[in-house]
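Input chain follows. Return structure tokens only.
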Amino acid sequence: MPGSPHVFGIIVHDTDGTTVMADVRTTIRNETSNETKDLNTNSSGEAVFNLANKSVFPSGWTPGDRISYFVLYQGYEAKESIIVQDTGGTQVTLTLVAATIAPSLRYFTVQDFLDYFQVSVYDEDNANGIKPQTIVKVGQMVETRIDNLTYRKWDDNDGSYYSYSNELHTVKSNQRIFWLKNTIVNSISRFEVNVVLPSQAEEWRNIMYLSLDNCDATTDWTASTDGAITLNTTNDEVNEGTGCLNITKTGGTVDNVTFSKTLSETFDFTRSDFKLDFYCEDITELKATGSTAVEIRIGNDSSNYYSFVYDRTKIGAAAWSTLNLIFDSDSSDASTTGTPNATACDYVAIKITYASSATTVSVGDMRLDYVRFNNQEDLNINLNTGRVEITGASTFFPASGKDQVRSTYKQGTSSVDEDIKLLAILMTGKSFAKRTLQRLNISASEVEGLSSAIQNLAVDDMEIKSILQTKSFPPIGNIWKEKSEYNG
């Protein structure tokens, strides 16, 4: 949406209508695009916005756009709106009153509503127009009603999405398929199962797969003394993806090397299974049987981590071995160094102890690949429908019972569903139409044109019902009628 430079100035007055208010946060909103911009008033009580500046409205502006402007200050507010024209500038004033400001709509804009019903705003048509603030207030209630009717929210919450934690589901006998309550799902961070009987104390296990490093690049990997790391992209030597890491010992100074990486973000490791794949061509190059040959680590840094150790008899010869460390493990071999924070892990490592300090390893004889949480094959997920199927053989429930599955996920989309946008507009319009007919309190036959208005309302009712039928949860269609493998 283009637009020539247009200076939009707002002067804010105190409740006396004269005293100017400095350093007061002032907001403008383009009702066509629903984009907003905040700015504090200067010492003269003025906030100045250049509407053509992309930092104000990323989509720009065009003559005829309605601009709402408002301020909230220590329990007082002021709000108005105006249609701006390509005149070079607009100067308006706001006087504070005791009131509560109405936030923006989520599913449609004021301009969407005005355009769809071809109506005007109050300051253009005092007899028939609607105040933008009234549309927003009624629209907010309608949007909440839509959320309740469809059991989900539909917008992207300004890019941050909606977070749901520990959403519980009851498990039926032999159940494997579950439906998350809020769709469309953006991402799932945890999917946990209670692996003990309902009569026992809960023991949750997170089975959500998460790749920490595919080892398709050496980026941020480091090796301690005598160690070296190179990328291996030979197809028959890679275990997963397009590459793996050759982890070698090139010198004779020490008998162990630690290969580690600090990840670019932190991850919650609680109640999860940390895994990595390790290849060893010749296990005699590892420390002798009965001693620690390989140690895997996950934590916050080289001084604060969880670890698990392996004797060389647990390492496959000339084969890939999956090494794992389960958080909260009751194994006496699991250990903690320092004070790691399991909810914010970003350090992973593998420490190799060799037969002696003189041992060297040829490039490719020891390799590292596929650092991850849990098993990808344990879950089959459809984010669009919120369908989660447990497929891993290791995740059977001991018995049916209440609240034996829980999930943590984010829900939302990058744009509002067009049907939901229309639904919000229709339901908001219906709210205004109902109030109008109730105010008249007369029969349709007594007023010309009123009968057709009632008929139009009925048509809108049918369209509203049709949209709700397809958008409500559970979904109505083949995906919900799927034949279950369990009985109740």
